Amino acid sequence: MELSRILRSLMLFFITVVILSLAACNMPVGNLFGGPSPTPLPSPTQIVLPPAVTGSIAGQIWHDLCAVPGEGQPNPEQPPDGCVAVEAAVIVPMGSRRRVNQG
After folding, report:
1. What is the mean pLDDT of residues 66-80?
2. Which end of the chain has a smaller Cβ tally under 10 Å, C or N?
3. Is residue 9 part of a domain?
């Protein structure tokens, strides 16, 4: 009889521990010890994307032809066709499209 009473007491003890453990899992921690409640997570907000913007780039590309003399050769008195002299010894392409240019 004594053994059944001890087993009944142990069973009651374990059931009590399980019930209290399950109850503690559902309790807010901040209120358990009298502290402030945990900060709730913010509710998700809807992300609004701006409308798609389309754009374009327009223009022309051409091969600016300028036949400059080779290195070590003297520059001519007049720049070749399609070229411009920007300094005394510097000849560069004109930079504007003409009929002779490809593109």
Report:
1. 80
2. N
3. yes
